[in-house]
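debug: dumping io for the single-chain case to check the tokenizer round-trip. Nothing else runs in this session.
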Amino acid sequence: MTPPANERKSRLLGAGEIDVSFEFFPPKSEKMEETLWAAVNRLAPLAPEFVSVTYGAGGSTRERTHATVARIVKETALRPAAHLTCVDA
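debug: decoded output
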């Protein structure tokens, strides 16, 4: 049985006063995508406040970032935050 999120945080981070988040990079290959989702599934039980997905310089990973965020929303209970590049995008 999995303990409640606040109990997990308390055991992992002392009094639970520290919140954590994780940042992911959008995968560039099928193998990297497998690695990413293994990491997402392994880290999800730690109940981060949110996870972010990077956005390459000049929007170079825009589609992969969007696809990764969309999949996180669809397949997990994590709260994603996508990076946004505002210059020349």
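debug: round-trip ok. Residues 30-43 form the longest helix (14 residues).
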